[in-house]
Amino acid sequence: MPQSSMADLSRRDGGFKSYSCLICRQRKVKCDRRNPCSNCLKAEKQCNFIPPVRGKRKRTKPPREGLHARLKRYEELLKSYGASIEPSEEPGDSESETASQPDVEMEEAEPRSESRAGMFGLEEAKPKLITKEGTSRYFESALWSNFGDEPQHPDVDAVDQPMNVQESEMFFEPEPSNRLENLTSLHPPSQVLEALKEIYADRVDSMMKILHLPTFLAALTDALRHPQDLSKSLEAEIFAFYFTAINALMEDECQNLFGVQRSVLYARYRLACRQALVNAGFLSTSSVVTLRAYSMFLMCIKNSYRCDALYVMSGIAMRLARKMGLHRDGTYLGLPVFEVEMRRRLWWHIAHVDFRAADVLGARPSLDLSCTDTKPPLNVNDEDLDPEMVQPPEEREGITSIALCLMRCELMDILGKFTSGRPGEARWEALYSPDITVAKKESIISNAESHYEKKYLRYCDPSNSFHTFLSFSIRSSICKMRILVRSPRQYASTSAKVPQGERDIAFSNATKLLEYVALVRAGSHGLNKYIWQLGTGYLWNTMLHVLIEARHRKIGPEVDRTWQLIGAVFSNCPQVFEDTTGPVYRALGKWTLDVWEVYVEASKAAGLPEPSTPEYITAIRRCRKPTTESAPNANDFRPATGSSLGHNRTQPQRYDESLTGLEPFESYPNIMSFEMDPNEWLQWDQLVAEQGGFVRVDDI
User: Fold this and answer.
1) What is this structure's pTM?
2) Which residue among 450, 581, 652, 661 has the highest number of C-beta atoms inside a 10 angstrom radius?
3) Helix (H, G, I), strand (E, B) or coil at 113
């Protein structure tokens, strides 16, 4: 007899049951399984032994999909995306294998399948780029990227729906002139147009390489045969082309070509370009051509708009670019070779403009830079690209027309290495960070310098003005990095003194940077044609470092040379000598006078002859400390301006003191406080940011 049967028999013989009585089960107490049990006897209850009935277990998981069914579904998904699935050479094997073996359940794949499908039953999402009649829309949302070739959220207009002109028009600040209804009359005559083409190719194209000149000029020629039939997007691009070329003209060239002053011509075509952008509905556009026109417009208005307004406007360009999928490399989207390259150029140009606007305003760069896989443009010239090409061209060695744009892309990548690997935080402020040692920072800078030397600098031709400008740009960036790495602000919060070796390196690079600035702004080596796109913001911190170090050293050959460089730089910054100017210029003027007085006293104390007062020191004293003396004579110092160099880059500007909150000249702190109080650096940064936000009252 089996062992289990013998156990049951012994239990029945001894009066034991194999399960608890009903009362004990209900009370959830231990039963001794006698009949009757001790619990029922004690409670004087009827003891009943009823066999328990086990209910059916509920399934806690949905039915699992078999392996072969899953493979079949995956093949269908691949076919829906255009994949070619080759049939098996021996079809009988699969059938026999299916019949002879049960389906294999895959535990780990089931949660992934549920997460992809979700409650809506959607298949795995795939980003999609929709192109139609020169427009493009990029969709990342799973819900809208799986709805065929016209994925649209109900609240979003169709791609080809006419743009709302009013919403674009309200974005701009009001112009003094009336709204232009017809732009046809503003197309220049053929002779002037040919001159503008040459100006653009020589002075503008290499500064912002977003137009493919052979293609654009051909389209321009065809469009001007019937200007009344122009598409709105092409019209915007054409007037952006006019505007950028005119912005690079000098005063005498404007008189010769158009017979009017540059300020009048600039205002006329700024208004025309704005109107063309409004007509094209740039604020909600899906046209890459319109976005390119808007990007060109942004490059020409930095002397007409507040810096904080430019920061917002560059952010609009970033969002439009992302909406069109420019943050995704075109090779991943299956686009033609030519379009891939042009989209790369436009994306990185917009990224650099937004990066610079954020830097001037003291803000962090756009987070869109941390979620892009767009590759840098190829190092090729326009003649290497063709809309019909099917294979990308081979990159050239040396300097091409896009070299400056590539150098800027690489600089943003280099700055990102100072942020401990955090993406999207590439900014100049990262060089102050104590997270990375000075030795590590210097290693990054040295590697960058070596890269630039091998890729660009060794190919520079001194007789080529663009090569010289590129060389100055690269060397200035290297100098700026070395200055910031050894900035005195890093030691201001501690009792430690700045090592003399660090001071020497920072001072040497600061004076080099001033030399480069003086050469470019003086128009040496034919560089005056690039002054139109230069600002002065990058000078302010460098000038402050030079003045701090000159105050520390007091006298010496290096200090003597420094005063000459300061004069050369100030001669091309007329704002320093204006009675009513921005707070940064007022502060720099005050500190320049203070350090000069220390220099004179130190020279006397050392037994040296008293240095003669430079004319720029006299000019600063005159405008900062006005006296009742007679008017200056003809021999007084006259700072060089843009007009004296043949280029009236900026209009006369006056700062509204009620908006700027200018402090009295004597209220600015002593320059030596920067070496002891970190709050002085914070206030200086705020002063620089506010300088960029001042309202400029133009005469145009």
Assistant:
1) 0.72
2) 581
3) helix
